[in-house]
Amino acid sequence: MLASRKLLFSLFSILLCGTTASDKVEVYAYTGGEARVSCSYPAGYETYEKYLCAKDCGNNDILVTTTQQRANRYFTSDQHQTQIFTVTISNVQASDAGKYWCGVSRSGKDIYTAVTVHVKSDECCDSVHSIQRYEGSTVSIICPHQREEVNSFKYVCKGSQPSTCRKRALVTATTKQNTLELSAITKQDAGSYLCGVERSNNFDDFSRVELTVFEWCCVSSRDVKGFLGQSVTLQCPYPSEHHSNTKFLCKGEQRATCQTVVNSTAPRGRFSLQEAHPSFSVTITGLGPTDAGTYWCGSDSQWTAGKNYTKIQLTLEWCCVSSRDVKGFLEQSVTLQCPYPSEHRSNTKFLCKGEQRATCQTVVSSTAPRDRFSLQEAHPSFSVTITRLRLTDAGTYWCGSDSQWTAGKHYTKIQLTLEYLKVTTVTPTNTTNRNGSETTLLHKDDRESNNARPAKEEMCINKIYSNQDASKFTEYRLDNDQCVPKDESLYENFSNEPIYGNC
User: How far apart are CA 84 and CA 168, in angstroms?
Assistant: First the structure.
């Protein structure tokens, strides 16, 4: 039997508070959210135990008490100063809907208040109003409401979950139409928006707007790469009905701040515009670092959203005549070829080494020869020969004819890799000819030079013996993987028989 003295009780979710009637409380919560039960009690009951129960409120129906503080999804707190007993229910589920009791334990009959919990899925809505706009435009989201709700609290949030909408409200209103106005919109503004109207003794009323934001323009958006010091041509299509319109190219990250660099009525310096429907082209000569960036071209100076513009991202690279890979062999020589223009015939030619041209260290020039590096000029290119190659010679080289490093066509980037040479060792074997003379046959043994042993220690040795002079021999060296006489002369055959075998 319920006591005649009632306990004031309110139950509400994170954002939406329930209201209290004279003898019961109606509570409205969303699935997945959090509900909080706040019960006030009379003075003098501060130290008494409070509890929340379900069904008939028997011993097995008690969900949590202030003595326990926490049980499953239920958590309690008791503020003695304000005489408020609070139960928080986390992760609200559909099965939480139903009848509850808030109680205060005392001698005799406890104090009870009836509570009814309503649970609704945290989603919205049955109907959706769609709005479509282009980037950079302005959009107004006007929230509808009933005539009797004109003075109700209203709010707008971005997202589709009613349970958290009020907390994330972008705008609020009480005595007027609730409108959210967005200017200079971007693709990040696209998505769902909820209009909420607060209701007493019920769930707040929501309507949903889906905003789609299209990329402003364009026939196309494209990336173009150019090279410093050279030229690049940008293609800009336009519709046939704009044949007589002024065509233009402007530069800027956003079209609102885009500065015209050339148009069909006003050519400008390094920028030239040529028309040839269905597109016009703009050629930029003598490209410099400041030419990189975002360009827009079109045939409608009013910037009407649609099909009449192209957005171009121009990137620039420092370039060369060519980039090439060269392979050499340790302890041997290698020659690097470096072309240069005829107008640089009298310039100083150079070869430098370094991964980046900014940190490239000159190793030889046409005015300063150096040790193992020799430079020879013979237009249209000069060559640099490096002798007695070492492991430290491997790496990136740059060669050119302009010490100011003017971007353009006057440089070559070379990647030099080195390998150990395959060494051929020749072993002589004596044979006796029919006439009694002795001839030496040469046998080759191919193998890779040992990393631990410098390739210069590997050599071909050929000893040729004859009846006339048993001590005569010729020492050989390697030349392009072949054995040649070290003294540049061929050995003699002291017999009349041919010699078999060679390097």
Answer: 27
Q: How confident is the model at residue 38 (pLDDT cuts 50, 70, 90)?
A: confident
Q: Which residues, in sequence order, are CB contacts of 422 under 8 Å at separation 6+?
A: 446, 447, 448, 449, 481
28/11 Cα distance (integer angstroms): 8
Window from 166-175, 281-290, 437-446 with minimum mean pLDDT: 437-446
Residue 318 has which token pair? Answer: 């420092």
- 497 φ, ψ to 5°? -95, 150
Half-sphere exposure of 56 (CA within 13 A, CB side): 4
Lowest-confidence pick of 85-99, 170-184, 449-463: 449-463
DSSP letters along 258-312, please?
PEEEEETTB-BTTEEEEEETTEEEEEE-S--GGG-EEEEEES-TT--SSSSEEEE
Instruction: Give the model's pLDDT for residue 111.
Output: 85
Residue 306 structure tokens: 């649609």
Nearest CA among 417, 217, 241 for reference residue 336: 417
How are strands ordered across the β-sheet holding 381-386? 334-339, 381-386, 373-378
* Cα-to-chain-centroid distance, residue 368: 46
